[in-house]
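Page 37, continued from 36.
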């Protein structure tokens, strides 16, 4: 089958999956930039990490729509009669060639609010599942090699999932962090949280958030009156670095709250970045993932592919534009820069110029 015909069939299948009201949203944008695939059997192909961006119009401010990002893993079965790949949306997927079921996976699960190990979380990969022990660790074996979706659930926590690449010739590990949905650490209606997790290498990735200080005018173009939250300045007025991990996996958890006496976030531009502080590997190969919790929904960000350096690489992940009424718009950035550039943004498209006054090459030592 040629690529164009395959894309038509895949696009049709994904439209059925999205199921959004046509009156409120524009046609979704489907990206295969980071998609991966592998054969599960002689007749089944799994295409993972297909990104669907749905733009929802804000009726009160049409110039600031909300972009919701969802990633799908879609199995396709080859129809020998029509010579077409047909989406298998009912979940009945061939279990695959047992000869390739040779991968293992160690999953470390933590509480995003305080970084403590989370026992009793259920980890699911395909038809396999395991429960985390008192150290928050679960191990699965006999998994199909290739790209796989790893899901984690636990009572009183928001479920989460991410895609990992499983290799039979090496040990595979990933960190997941669940945000409490009730009780201690649960987000209030107007709080925002960003949770960074990654694999074993690099050893130390750091979260950095810049945003409008109490002296800010609230304008998105006010580049002077801004705070910088990171490991050496973990509490910055409306932002707190709840957890700073320095020994692999994460989490690094950032929570943004309304100022004292207010019910909505301070107006202005917030920018979230990840800095490679130390350790081997690179951000694109680290297995890093940032989950953003805002307005009762989750949005996942994965590092874009690319040839970048190791320590002192900066991944600018997203920006939040908060208007005077407290409305929040999420803008994915997904660009790289370096510490020597004294910046957390390598492009000036969209909101915000390069962040002024931050030199990642001269941060306070740990």
């Amino acid at each position: 089958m040629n690529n164009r015909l395959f894309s038509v069939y895949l696009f049709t299948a994904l439209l059925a999956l999205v199921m959004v009201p046509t009156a409120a949203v524009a046609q979704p944008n489907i990206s295969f930039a980071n998609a991966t695939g592998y054969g599960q059997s002689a007749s089944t192909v799994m295409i993972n990490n297909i990104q669907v961006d749905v733009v929802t119009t804000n009726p009160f401010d049409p110039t600031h729509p909300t972009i919701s990002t969802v990633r799908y893993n879609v199995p396709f079965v080859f129809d020998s009669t029509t010579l077409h790949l047909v989406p298998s949306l009912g979940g009945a997927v061939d279990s695959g060639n047992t000869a390739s079921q040779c991968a293992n996976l160690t999953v470390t699960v933590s509480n995003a609010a305080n970084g403590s190990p989370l026992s009793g979380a259920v980890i699911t990969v395909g038809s396999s599942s395991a429960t985390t022990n008192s150290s928050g660790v679960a191990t699965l074996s006999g998994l199909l090699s290739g790209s796989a979706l790893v899901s984690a659930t636990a009572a009183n926590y928001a479920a989460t999932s991410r895609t990992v690449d499983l290799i039979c010739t090496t040990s595979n590990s990933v960190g997941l962090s669940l945000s409490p949905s009730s009780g201690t650490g649960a987000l209030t209606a107007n709080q925002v949280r960003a949770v960074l997790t990654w694999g074993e290498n690099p050893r130390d990735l750091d979260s950095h958030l810049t945003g409008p200080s109490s002296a800010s005018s609230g304008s998105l173009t006010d580049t002077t009156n801004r705070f910088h939250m990171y490991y050496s300045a973990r509490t910055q007025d409306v932002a707190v670095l709840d957890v700073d991990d320095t020994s692999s996996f994460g989490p690094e958890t950032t929570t943004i709250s309304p100022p004292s006496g207010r019910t909505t976030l301070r107006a202005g531009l917030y920018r979230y970045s990840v800095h490679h502080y130390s350790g081997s590997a690179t951000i694109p190969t680290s297995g890093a993932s940032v989950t953003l919790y805002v307005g009762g929904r989750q949005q996942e960000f994965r590092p874009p592919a690319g040839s970048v350096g190791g320590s002192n690489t900066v991944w600018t992940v997203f920006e939040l534009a908060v208007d005077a009424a407290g409305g929040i718009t999420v803008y994915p950035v997904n660009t790289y820069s370096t510490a020597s550039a004294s910046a957390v943004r390598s492009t000036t498209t969209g909101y915000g110029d390069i962040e002024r006054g931050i030199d990642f090459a001269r941060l306070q030592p740990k």
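The chain has two domains: 3-95, 99-362. Flag for discussion at group meeting. Residues 1-8, 15-25, 91-99 have pLDDT under 50 and may be disordered.
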